[in-house]
C-alpha cells in the first residue's frame, strides 16, 4: 500500500541542493556530499582549478575546488555534471561560504564549445533568441524562481481570505473587454461528404462552417464574466489563468499571451475593491522581499539600483486614490509638454501615467471614476455622476497600469440599457443578464497582469523577459 511505500527504504531520497548547502553544518567525520547541476564557469590556475556549479535552486553557485587540475580536464562550461566532494569552509576571500573539495566528477551531458550561452554578460535581446537556454542564466533563473514564489503567494492570499479558485474557460464565445482584440479559435474543417455518402439531393456547402463545431469561438481575453457566475454562488472567487490579446502591440508591456489574476467578490463597493487591491499588492511585495531576498538583491544590484527602495515604498506608503477628473487636471497643469494631448475624456498614454506616478514620488496611484464611454459595458455607473463609472486602474512607477478593475453593473435594467446603447448583441449574453435577473448581488473585482507585476518586482524593462516562453507578434517559435 501507499503507506508502506512511504515508510519503506524504497522511498525516494531527495538529494541535497545548492540552496541548502550554506546552512549545512560541517561534520568532521562525514562531510561528503554529491551535487548535480550545470557548470557555470571553469577556471584553471597553475596548481588548482575551480568550478562554479548551479542547479537552479538559488542564485548562488557552489564553488568546487580541484587541487589536481587534471581531474577537471575536459569539463566544459555548460556541461551537466555530478560532483562528489567534501564540504569545507572556503579558504578564499569569501571565508563565510562553504565550498566543495573535489573528489570525483562525472560529466552527465557534455557541452560543445559552440554553446550559445557563454559565461559573460549577454543582452536580454540575445537571451530571447535562445529562449530554450536562457533560464540557465542568472537573470532568467531568478525570474523563474520569483515567478514561482509569487504564484504560491497569490494562492495563499486568496486562500487565507476564504476565496474559491475557479478555472474559467480558455475558449469563449464573448468579448469581455469589448475591444475586439480576440484570437479566433480555428479547428479542422470537417471534410466534404465523399461520393458514396453524398446523395443526389445534397447541395455542396460553399461556406466554411465557423470553427468551433459550428459556432464562433475565441481565446479568452479575461475570465471575469465567467468568474461573476461563481461569485454569484460562492461570494469570493478568483481565477488565475492565461489570457490572450490579439492587439499588435510591440511594446515592452504587452504580450499576446499573459497570465491574469482576477478576484471577483460579492457585496463590495468601490472603496472595498480599492482596499482589497492595495492589500493584495502589499502582501505580495512584502512577502517576495522576504522570501525571494537573494534574487531581489541580485535584481537590485544588476538590473535596477532603485528596485529595493521602490518596493519598500510600495509596502510602506498608502496608495494615492485620485479621481480621473483630478488626474486630468494634474496633467493639464503640468509644465511638461506631452506628445499625446491632454483633455477630459482621453485614455491615459504611457507618458501621462509616468508623469502621475513621478508626481506622487513613486507611490502607486489608483485612478478612479473614468468616463463611461471609454470603458467596457459591464462597469457600474457612478451614483454621483452617470457619465463616469465605479472603476479603478492602479498605476505603478516604471510599469504604468498594473491593475484594472470595477464594480459591475448588477441591475438588470441598467445593464440592458447600456448594452443596447453600445449596440451589443444582447442575446449572446443571456446567461450574463440572467445573473442580474435571478438573485443579483452587488459585486466587483479586478485583474492584475501577472507579468507586469513580475516586471515590477524584478525591475526588468521588457515583459518578454518575465514569462518562461513569451508569445508576441512574430514570436511563436516553440
Ligand atoms: O485592464 P484589463 O483589460 O482588465 C480586464 O481584463 C478586466 N476584465 C479585469 C477584471 O476586472 N477582472 O486588464 C487587466 C490587467 C492590466 O491592468 C494589465 O496589467 C494586464 O491585465 N494586461 C496585460 N498584460 C500583458 N500584456 C497585455 N497585452 C495586457 N493587457 C492587459
TrEMBL record:
PROSITE patterns: AA_TRNA_LIGASE_II (PS50862). The keyword Acetylation does not apply. One of its GO terms (molecular function) is ATP binding. GO terms for biological process: asparaginyl-tRNA aminoacylation. Residues 144-468 form the Aminoacyl-transfer RNA synthetases class-II family profile domain. Residues 181-210 are annotated as: Disordered. GO terms for cellular component: mitochondrion. Keywords: Aminoacyl-tRNA synthetase, ATP-binding, Ligase, Nucleotide-binding, Protein biosynthesis. Its EC number is 6.1.1.22. Residues 195-206 have a biased composition (Low complexity). HAMAP family: Asn_tRNA_synth. Belongs to the class-II aminoacyl-tRNA synthetase family. PANTHER family: ASPARAGINE--TRNA LIGASE, MITOCHONDRIAL-RELATED, ASPARTYL/LYSYL-TRNA SYNTHETASE. NCBIfam families: asnS, PRK03932.1. This is asparagine--tRNA ligase. It comes from Polysphondylium violaceum.
